[in-house]
DNA sequence: TAGATTGTTAATCGATTAACAATC
DNA sequence: TAGATTGTTAATCGATTAACAATC
């Protein structure tokens, strides 16, 4: 059972993966000690914000010294739940589904991809990095019997809500949604959207309206 | 020359694509009139926020009536710069690059994909939906001579900063970055990141720490 | 010990929500 | 005209930044 941190704002939570990335980088460079000021210079957050953020989860630093990079990295990993393994499936095995299946770091970070699904007979039976593509009709039983926590939706948007309903019925806890719609699911289900066209449209906006805008 | 809206906060800008999506949907359903209250119910923003957001760009509504869906949709399109065409290239033609190249809606929204690039001789010479993959050594000249506005980086992270430097030198205005690093570019260059693993880690966090968290 | 830097409280800033007068 | 709903100002809420006492 992981410790539960309540009342942490999403603003803070969304910064955590960035801390994770930069601490990893420091560790790779064999930097073992860092102050909030130095991190601030690297990451572009204020030192104050960094100390506030980290103190939501515990006092990982030491006055007069700073933070031990190795320890802090380990803590962030734990906070992010990256020390745990998650059964994962991808629904929709077209270009995007395959691209994500091929993304090696999935496995490395504990996202254990066990199957892909599709309706296309040409794809069913194939394997992507040794992970099989099954007929989508087998999805619900597969999820039931294989302890799947996360469903990744890579289907065209027309099918996304239907797939989401089936994932919920099959007792998945979280959905990583790449379809350009907002899924309707019970509120205990975690949905994280990657709305690619939304992101692209921001570029388009800034290209036209930028006059020294700042963006994150 | 598009009108420049200054001092619009990124919080507002990032909501614009969602308005665009919902208005399109209404139009498809042949709904021609909508109030901020009804939009609020659909989209999950408060009616007050919707009116505030829209009034940053002009008074598109009418007291006692609401908003004309068709007109508002058109305005949002213009604000987002979706009535304009952008020369676009993809760097890195692996699974992800190909997935994005195959994403039909790119063209539909004015993102005119003219070339992909790669270092892999097996890929160079291929075509994805009729768009050729060239040797990456030809990138800078191609961008120079073809009026390219946007570079999409789909390379492994080791090469991303180098590619970004070259894109900047070749006078691209914006970078859509899928590599899991924060690019260092001059401040007049627009960078929009899609950090997939950051997004996935949020799921992992919520799976472990969720006790009725709210997320967007 | 003196210097450095955290943890934490207080102040500020910005974004969201509420309220209501204007007006279609 | 009466009813509805916007545009906009004011109030509230939350997140970021500043400041500093605690302490390594």
UniProtKB/TrEMBL annotation, chains A, B:
Main location per the UniProt record: cytoplasm
DNA-binding region location: 18-57
GO biological process: negative regulation of DNA-templated transcription; response to redox state
Record's subcellular location: Cytoplasm
GO MF annotations in UniProt: DNA binding; DNA-binding transcription factor activity
Binding-site residues for NAD(+), renumbered to this chain: 92-97
SUPFAM superfamilies for the chain: NAD(P)-binding Rossmann-fold domains, Winged helix' DNA-binding domain
Keywords: Cytoplasm, DNA-binding, NAD, Repressor, Transcription, Transcription regulation
UniProt xrefs under Pfam families: CoA_binding (PF02629), Put_DNA-bind_N (PF06971)
Family annotation (Gene3D superfamilies): NAD(P)-binding Rossmann-like Domain, Winged helix-like DNA-binding domain superfamily/Winged helix DNA-binding domain
InterPro entries per UniProt: CoA-bd, NAD(P)-bd_dom_sf, Rex_actinobacterial-type, Rex_DNA-bd_C_dom, Tscrpt_rep_Rex, WH-like_DNA-bd_sf, WH_DNA-bd_sf
Domain (CoA-binding): residue spans on this chain: 81-182
Cellular component terms (Gene Ontology): cytoplasm
SMART domains the record matches: CoA_binding
Transcription regulation in keyword set: yes
PANTHER family on file: REDOX-SENSING TRANSCRIPTIONAL REPRESSOR REX (PTHR35786), REDOX-SENSING TRANSCRIPTIONAL REPRESSOR REX 1 (PTHR35786:SF1)
Function: Modulates transcription in response to changes in cellular NADH/NAD(+) redox state.
Entry-linked HAMAP family: Rex
Family, as annotated: Belongs to the transcriptional regulatory Rex family.
Subunit structure: Homodimer.
NCBIfam families reported for this sequence: PRK05472.1-3 (NF003989), PRK05472.1-4 (NF003990), PRK05472.2-2 (NF003993), PRK05472.2-3 (NF003994), PRK05472.2-4 (NF003995), PRK05472.2-5 (NF003996)
Name of the protein in its database record: Redox-sensing transcriptional repressor Rex
């Amino acid at each position: 059972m992981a410790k539960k941190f309540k009342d942490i704002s999403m603003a803070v939570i969304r910064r955590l993966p960035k801390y994770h990335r930069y601490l990893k980088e420091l560790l790779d460079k064999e930097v073992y000690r860092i102050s909030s000021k130095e991190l601030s210079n690297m990451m572009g957050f204020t030192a104050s914000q960094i100390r506030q953020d980290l103190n939501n989860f515990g006092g990982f630093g030491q006055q007069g010294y700073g933070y031990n990079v190795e320890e802090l990295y380990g803590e962030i990993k734990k906070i992010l739940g990256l020390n745990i393994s998650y059964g994962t499936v991808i629904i929709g095995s077209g270009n995007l589904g395959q691209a994500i299946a091929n993304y090696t770091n999935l496995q490395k970070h504990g996202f254990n991809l066990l199957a892909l699904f599709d309706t296309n007979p040409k794809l069913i039976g194939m394997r992507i990095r040794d992970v099989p593509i099954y007929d989508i009709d087998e999805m619900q039983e597969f999820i039931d019997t294989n302890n799947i926590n996360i469903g990744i939706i890579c289907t065209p948007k027309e099918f996304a809500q239907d797939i989401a309903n089936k994932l919920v019925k099959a007792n998945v806890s979280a959905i990583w949604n790449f379809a350009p719609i907002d899924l309707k699911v019970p509120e205990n289900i975690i949905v994280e959207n990657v709305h690619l066209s939304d992101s692209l449209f921001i570029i388009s906006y800034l290209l036209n309206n930028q006059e020294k805008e700042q963006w994150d």
